[in-house]
Amino acid sequence: MLDNVDPFIGTAATDLPQARGLAAAWWWPKPQVGNTHPGATSPLGMVSACAYSGAYPTGYGRYAKNTEGVPEEMFERLQASGFTHFQQSGTGAIRKYYNYVRVTPMVQPLDVLGEAWPLHDEVAEAGYYAAALDTGIRCELTVGAKVAVHRYTFPEHSSARVVVDLSCGGLAIELGRTVPVRAQVESMGHGRAQGTVVMEGVPLSVYLDVDSPGWRQMLWYDRRLIDGGTRLDFDSIRHTTLRPFGMLFMGPAAAGQTVEVRMGFSLRGCEQARRNLERECGLTRPAFDTVRSRTRARWGGLLDRVQVEGGTPARRTVLATALYHSLIKPCFADDESPFWPTSGPFAFDVCTMWDIYKTQLPLLAAIAPDRGADLLESLIRVCEEEGNFPIGYRMARGADRFFRQASALAHTALADAHALGWAGLDWNWALVHMVDDLRRLYGEDFFEHGVVYPITHTLDLAYAHHCTAQVARALNDRHLADDLEARGRQWSNAFDPGTGLLRDSEFYEGGKWNYSFRLLHDMAARIALVGGDTAFIDQLDRFFGFGAAPVARPGRRPRAAVMAAGYALNRFEGLNNEPDMEAPWAYHYAGRPDRTAQVVHAALTWQFGTGPGGLPGNDDSGGLSSWYVWASLGLFPVAGQNLFLINAPAFGRAVLRAGGNEFVIETSGHRETPIGVDGIDRDLPAQYVQSATFNGKPLEATHLSAATVHRGGLLHLRLGPEPSAWGRGIRPPSLSDPPATPEETR
């Protein structure tokens, strides 16, 4: 999989072929851009490194801030004023941004620092990024978990230099700049320097070791050199008083001479940053190739935990890159928490939780369970220290918890982890925090009234009560479990019995149709509420646009009337947006997995492609890419329910290495289908599961428990061109079901 990864996918405005068939009826309200970056990353590591232009939202690229339609360009061409660290990955607007510690190789005077030069000959691989600046300098970047290594190849020049700007943060857009409030910089000679900047309440420290024999090193302030100075201290910085500052290494360069800049980072001071640098780079010089090789090996080890056979080159590239994007965030900085002094996992950049809890966290649980457990331990620690589980968590003191987006989402991952038998967590202590968190913010109103607005929080809280009840019951706290389960049944208060849809309310990035088909813990009662299978399927068919005419995507600067008309369609948003990403699998609960197959096939065929414009919308920290991985495997995790739903896969054979076990998905009758970028000129029909076996025994149900998948086994799916009776009888489990049979609980 490693050799198929293309980090440029999603870095530019969406450029997919015009969809045909079902996918042509879907409407896209959000920005048509993946918002990823091609920079060097380490799997779930603390540090990234990429060319910095100041564009939205990662600091890389050409685009201005936008919330709908085709993004507008800030610049006519790709450019960079240097290279920064700690980029976002695929998010939309999360209000604050990173891009700290800009490093700029130059052959111009310091006065022009901040000027951007065109980028040429970009190369990106997992763990590696390279480009040439218009100044003739070739720039290469690689990273480890807590380090970055830059290698610059200079043209001949009498006064080349590498400038490190510690005052730079955020983006070059309105309200996008981040300013340190305190800072300290120290030059120690012999190519060594260090500094700490306090950004958004977090002390970010860097230790530098620069391999530039014979060059001078100096501090600078306000683009003026401080000859002979060894230390700068800033006790109180404001937006109005900030002047750029940092360190500089300068000297003559022969043509082709390389300078290596090794950087260790820490949230616990310069001394720990130095230890991090020595741990990952060693004491030998140079270190670039060693760090690059180790990071590439780590990427290979993780990406190999999903393997597929067959598929067109384009489909394999999209899958490999989706898996890569799924494993960039969250950022883990073990033993680095700036908020509590003890050792242990610390995770930040847990955005966007309202998307990743459905797809990416279950993927981590499967292929990186050690990191999945570390994330949960980190979230529990946040709850201990700050009083609630975060909905999103940034590298910032008093981080915005994104509470408007959703409520109590960590409960789903905790419930799944307990059902999988993860023994490393103190589950009694975790249960204490799960219960306490249910009362916070919107939870208090839910506790008192059984309903809360925005109405989607009613669904969140009811579901979280159900998830918490499962943990409480497993821990033999029956009284608590019964009380929680009773409150969990109040999901029905969110629905209008007259329409079978959610009640009118405000909705975060969507409407009531987008949120009405979430996979609840009692889908049988949910379907009965609307009038039964037929009525529910009719609503889903309308939502997905079966039989509807094609609709146009919003263009650049779409008019208000265009957006209003699109929203009025009440249509599936086609993975351009994530609130309804699980809705295709709602058909399973009404006995129509064939409809799921049609919708997922259309999405995999037309909504993803190769090249920079290959994503239909924001990747949202890997939430969208994780959806693609699961859908390609023919599986979908129902977060919080210890459950996987089964669908026709996109590859003839696949292997999911969950922990130390192999879950194999084999097919017979599989037909290779190209994706839109392969140049197909017609909409090829979906394939449907005709029958299934698991470990050689017939499987009539359309689901397996997550515990079964994680234990490994062989799922064989016989596929065909027409819908079948498979899956129409046994439905996925619901809370109001009678006791399940052994077949259903397997």
TrEMBL record:
Domain Glycosyl hydrolase family 92 N-terminal as annotated: residue spans: 5-266
Cellular component per GO, a single term: cytosol
Annotated spans, Disordered: 725-746
BP GO annotations: carbohydrate metabolic process; glycoprotein catabolic process
Keyword list, A-Z: Hydrolase
Cross-referenced InterPro entries: 6-hairpin_glycosidase_sf (IPR008928), GH-type_carb-bd (IPR014718), GH92_N (IPR041371), Glyco_hydro_92 (IPR012939), PNGase (IPR050883)
Bias-annotated ranges (Pro residues): 735-746
Protein name: Glycoside hydrolase family 92 protein
